[in-house]
Amino acid sequence: MDFQRIRDDDEAIRAALTTLKTTTGIPVTMYATLLSDNRLQITQWVGLRTPALHNLIIEPGVGVGGRVVSTRRPVGVSDYTRAKVISHENDRHIQDEGLHSIVAVPVIVHREIRGVLYVGVHSPVRLGDKVIEEVTMTGRNLEQDLAVNSAMRRVEGGKPGVAKAGRVMNGAEWEQVRSTHTKLRMLANRLEDDNVRKELEILCEQLVTPVRVKQSAKLSARELDVLSCVALGHTNVEAAEEMGIGAETVKSYLRSVMRKLGAHTRYEAVNAARRIGALP
């Protein structure tokens, strides 16, 4: 058994759960690992009041998590035990914990679902679109961390000497890379000198070169600028102010990007862009 692999991934998952709870203020965050038989098991959690959900095994297709795996899309319910979009085999466990509203998103690495990221509250309140977007973004960041862990293990497996020299960046360090990428793109956008602007754009490309693959969708420079802002959590208005354009123009770029990448939301577009190496 690869204990280093388990430890690295567990640390990334724990960091994602803690960050998500801090960012959203939602009391419960959980992660369920997809097992080899397509069942889920809740393996990490923050904020649970009881042991009712500890290490719970979830059968294929059951509950919120099962629906997430089958659809490969985020799922949210505002009253779990009465929700019509999910099955209810695990209602007793949810009731014992006292959860009402739950949002869950898939964690997909190399096109395969690795697990499900959950948030939940113990009161009858609806978790809005902003929360779903935040959970989705955290899930995408976790995907990248797990993918990097996987890539580093492959390199270290092929070249034993690399293991001592190499180090996997943590979530905060990846976030700094992403922030730097966006700032460089915004700086390039303000320059009148074409040569300097092109040099900065090359630097932006170098930040994503290690994970770049052949792009099936060609994104324009302005579309990448918008996506860079969205990836940092900017609203359309904030992105417009950063780029010096109108909010409606930002919306237009986003619509174009989502169409090219086959994405349904702005955050799906960010994730898709990262998958093809267009964003760090």
Automatic annotation (TrEMBL):
MF annotations from Gene Ontology: DNA binding
Q: Carries keyword Transcription?
A: yes
What does the UniProt keyword field contain? DNA-binding, Transcription, Transcription regulation
GO BP terms, alphabetized:
regulation of DNA-templated transcription
**Domain of life of the native organism:** Bacteria
Name this protein carries in UniProt = GAF domain-containing protein
Organism this protein belongs to: Corynebacterium poyangense
